[in-house]
Amino acid sequence: MASDDECYDYEYDYDEDDDDEQEEEATEADEEGLFEDDTPMPDRPADCWAITQESLSIAQQQDLSMVMTLLNVKQHNARALLIHHRWKIDCIYDHLDRKGRDRTFREAGIVLHENINGKPLGLPSRVVNCMVCFDEFSVGAVSTMECGHYFCNDCWTEHFKACVESGKKQIRCMGVKCPVVCDEAVVQQLLAGEYPDAARRFDRFLLESYLENNDSVKWCPSVPHCGRAIRVGAGERYTEVECPCGLGFCFACAAGAHSPCPCTMWDMWEVKCNGESETVNWILANTKSCPKCFNPIVKDGGCNLVTCKCGQHLCWKCGGATGRAHDWDSIVGHSCNRFVGEEKKKVDNAKRNLHRYTHYYDRFKIHGDSHKLEHDKLGPAVDERVKLLEALLQDQPLLHDASWLTEAHRGLLQSRQVLSRSYVFAYYMFGGDDDKVRTWPKHRGSLPIAQGLFENYQEELESNVERLSKLLATEYGPVPEEEDVRRDKQNAMNLAKIVQTRCGEIYKCIQDELLPLLLDPMIIAAYRPRGPDKAKDFTTA
Fold this sequence. Notes:
Strand order of the largest sheet: 6-7-1-16
Largest sheet: 4 strands, mixed
Low-confidence stretches: 1-42, 115-122
CATH class of the domain at 1-12 and 22-39 and 368-524: Mainly Alpha
CATH architecture of the domain at 1-12 and 22-39 and 368-524: Up-down Bundle
Shape: extended
């Protein structure tokens, strides 16, 4: 079994006496019930379901049937309403209440006219003219939509085919400026007779509309794709979910789980870390540009007269072109002792920005690397220790159940991720100059106070996470002493409770104290002590 030093690179040096003192305090505090009262109650689990290709049509039909029944409309009208309102049934009801049935329907492309069995009313004879091809047809060769417009079936079929080939999921009437959505049953019937491939493609479009036009359903972003879509309940867009395939992700932006960092900040961080922005900053802060070929130059020792590969001589102090003659004190005919404010400010800002980025990135990466080690190495070690304790302490009911080790390890992993991502939030929130993260002028005086509160929580969480990591990495001998196991169990449970409390405080501080200060509103997913909510398999029963 790996030793502590093999498993982890601890960022902090520990004083054993101080550790014992803190553990005793944690135990005493738990006995007094202090931490239990402070632990924030997690919100209810998100209502999320995993939908497979096989169950997708059934999941879609549930929503369609609900609207069809309540509003007494056909399926294509129910679909038009749902697509128009992004499959938000509560939004449809809200519009019906505020705008009335006729206006709500009209805005979604639904205009209901009297008709019998799909045939137009009030025709002057049994033979009618198609207003597209101008040929005469019997009433049986003509189809009409609920708007009252009718054309021959051949023209309808070609219109439907053209719309499907252009990728339209909602086909509108051929009438001039008519916004009405065509009856999908008529579309499928006419296409199936002449263009069966187009009919199948239209069927697929209708199915895909449930995903592409639905704010509550998204494909799992796994690579390779697991074939599942995740559906969340109304009002739960800003949540983090875990697909049955094991991938956890942010439902709002489909990126990997990143709370307590808002989506906007996380997206900027991904671009920054994967792009070349920091390379440019380093070049600006540590190189001079050749005044002839403009290539960057790095000086490693020597005097301040530098010669570029292109043959140009320049002064390293100011970057200006010079001649070759010089001595150890000066370059002949060259002087740059006068201060140029803008250039100096530009270089100083580049160095400051680079130093600031390095500060936050280093801590983001340190905790991220620790999470990986604690997952890959400590995880199996904890599992082995659980088996050992359960095998050796079968006659001790209170110690036989070693699930406390697993729970403490799970809390450690979750809090590591919270810590790592909290540094991304801090990078943009405190001292950043990005246009997307601006503070209300009237609230700028409140920012330092909220920052101090946030950093205190962050520091306390960091300290207790390291203590919990060290405790879980401590191995037992071949026959563990019951007293040692009992002490470690109490300390592990206390520390797990403390880090959960501190994580909740960081989330609360960000959501309640810091994000309201921003000019552009942002939101974060609710804190889940056990990680993203696991999506349940959608059942067809």
